[in-house]
Specification:
The radius of gyration is 21 Å and the shape is globular. The two termini are 34 Å apart. Strands 1-2 form a two-stranded antiparallel sheet. It has helices at residues 2-37, 42-49, 66-92, 98-123, 140-150, 156-180, 187-205, 211-228, 234-242, 253-277, 284-289, 293-319, 331-340, 345-355, 359-386; strands spanning 52-57, 60-65. A hairpin with a 2-residue loop joins strand 1 (52-57) and strand 2. The chain has 15 helices and two strands.
Length: 387
């Protein structure tokens, strides 16, 4: 029994500990990026990330700038880790029990629907409607980092609730990216990708446990998904679902791969994404643009839409006796956690890049996300500290 409890608790505590440090590192990289792009080194910054890197073998040439390798390559590894976390939670974690998982699942659904509706209300019948998914996501690294500042003021059950909610949020964002942000499809490459997935599935059910059999096929899957027209990062999630796991006490290939990826993603990939994509050049015109529908939709969606959606759906779930309030948690604390759900940084910026090819709209989106995330974090921290 003790071994089983440790098997459940350890991944969560490791997850929280890693995300706390990652949150602080992300903040440092955001400040560093903003300082660089608003200094005389701005041109060098952009020149570096526009440098082309690629592979050329015989007639095969695959070359892209560093931005591509971060946003489509390294972020696929980020999505792989997210996929592994989702699968583990669904099979043996907080989301594996219907009664326990109903509250974070329903709260997360509310936290996705309401912000999207608020954004659409502001941007209805405009050219920026396509960004409706931007305020849907929660950045777990920043949220957990803020929770860590509160120490023992908040119960462990609230941390587990917010973590589970953020994982469901990520799953929702992944589905949205796959379904709504795919422009054109190559059915030939989709067919090749499906062949790779079938092989991976056969490995899984045949109980092939060595990751050396899976990883080369994962790279091939990434290439085929990219060429198919679906965003390449989705390959990371599909690959994660093919990695075998078990319910025993032995470390499964899924847990082994998750352990291998957690620190590189937290301490390298996410900070690098922040460093390369928080390229906001401040100007009076940019701040004035926040009053446009795109800026208002993102800010109101994240700051107010997330907490309204999370708390209202949680309230309905509890009143309908579908769920229970987390142990030793008050409604005031749940509202504070709802505000922390409005910290949308990493996934929100990622969706903004997919939504708008125009650099001007990307800049407004990023600034709105940054300000809204700061406001949500500050309000959430204040409420939780008083609660």
């Amino acid at each position: 029994m003790e071994t089983r409890i440790k098997k459940f608790i350890k991944p969560f505590t490791d997850f929280v500990r890693t995300n706390v440090t990652s949150g602080y590192l992300l903040l440092f990289c955001v400040v560093a990026a903003l300082s660089i792009v608003n200094s005389r080194f701005s041109e060098d910054y952009h020149h570096f990330f526009e440098t082309n890197i690629g592979v050329s073998i015989a007639n095969f040439n695959f070359s892209h700038d560093i931005h591509f390798w971060i946003n489509d390559g390294l972020m696929a590894i980020f999505f792989l880790l997210v996929g592994l976390e989702i699968k583990r939670e669904l099979l043996e974690g907080e989301l594996s029990d219907i009664k326990k998982s109903s509250l974070p699942i329903l709260a997360a659904i509310g936290g996705m629907i309401v912000p999207a509706l608020i954004y659409i209300l502001f941007n209805y019948n405009t050219t920026t409607t396509n960004g409706w998914a931007i305020p849907m996501a929660t950045d777990i690294a920043f949220a957990v980092a803020i929770l860590s500042l509160l120490g023992k003021r908040i119960p462990l059950s609230l941390k587990i609730f917010l973590t589970a909610l953020a994982i469901v949020d990520d799953l929702g964002a992944i589905i949205v990216i796959a379904v709504f942000y795919t422009q054109t499809l190559s059915f030939a490459y989709l067919f090749y990708a499906s062949i790779v997935l079938i092989i991976l599935y056969l490995f899984n059910i045949s109980r092939v446990k060595s990751l050396s059999f899976y990883i080369p096929l994962g790279i091939l899957l990434w290439y085929f998904i990219y060429k198919s027209g679906i965003h390449a990062t989705i390959a990371g999630v599909l690959f994660a679902f093919m990695i075998p796991t078990n319910k025993g006490t032995h470390i499964s290939p899924l847990e082994h791969l998750e352990h291998l990826l957690t620190k590189p993603v937290a301490y390298f990939i996410m900070p690098l994404f922040a460093l390369s994509n928080t390229d906001i050049v401040f100007s009076n015109q940019l701040f004035l643009s926040l009053s446009q529908p795109i800026g208002l939709g993102i800010i109101f969606g994240l700051v107010f839409g997330k907490v309204i959606g999370i708390v209202s759906f949680a309230y309905l779930s509890i009143k309908l006796k579908l769920s229970d309030l987390p142990t030793e948690t008050s409604w005031k604390q749940l509202i504070g956690a709802g505000f922390l759900g409005g910290i949308g940084f990493t996934m929100s910026i990622f969706i903004a890049l997919l939504s708008f090819p125009e650099l001007e709209l990307q800049a407004v989106s990023k600034l709105a996300i940054l300000l809204a995330s700061f406001a949500s974090g500050a309000i959430g921290y204040g409420l939780l500290r008083r609660a």
